[in-house]
Amino acid sequence: MKNYLIKLLISTILIVVISHFLKIQITDYTAAIFMAIALSLLNTFVKPILVFFTIPVTIMTLGLFLLVINAVIVKIADYFIDGISMTFIQAIIFSIILSISQYILNKIFIDK
């Protein structure tokens, strides 16, 4: 549970920082917290289904279609969270930066 809360805190901070660089509109910090929670839930429950149904396209594009799936997950979370607004191109860039940053920071702060 402690590791999940640390990951959620890391995600929230990264959402706020990345949104400032990409000029994504976030109204307040609670929207960033809800965005982190929504992304966590969508990555757990919806992303595996999307990946399963798009296996042929993912194989044909040598895995690059996973970037589109990540952007779709971000846009779904954007749809449900009122305080955040971004375009699809911003969602693609946002998902790439967020994934790389989360990987690095989780390796640093999460003990195994």
Report on the architecture of this protein:
This protein is mostly helical and 112 residues long. The model has no long low-confidence stretch (mean pLDDT 94). Helix 1 crosses helix 2, helix 1 (2-22) packs across helix 6 and helix 5 packs across helix 6 (88-109). It has one domain (2-106). The protein is globular, with a radius of gyration of 14 Å. It starts with a helix and ends with a helix. Strands 1-2 form a two-stranded antiparallel sheet. The protein has six helices and two strands, in the order H-E-H-H-H-H-E-H.
User: Quaternary state, please?
Assistant: single chain
The CA-CA distance between the termini, in Å, is 13 Å
Extract low-pLDDT stretches.
Answer: none
Succession of helices and strands: HEHHHHEH
Structural class: mainly alpha
Instruction: Find the count of extended strands (DSSP E, 2+ residues).
Output: 2
Structure summary:
The protein is mostly helical. It has helices spanning 2-22, 29-45, 47-53, 55-60, 65-80, 88-109, and strands spanning 25-26, 84-85.
Features:
112 residues, mainly alpha, two-stranded antiparallel ribbon, 2 strands, globular, Phage holin family protein, transmembrane helix, Phage_holin_4_2
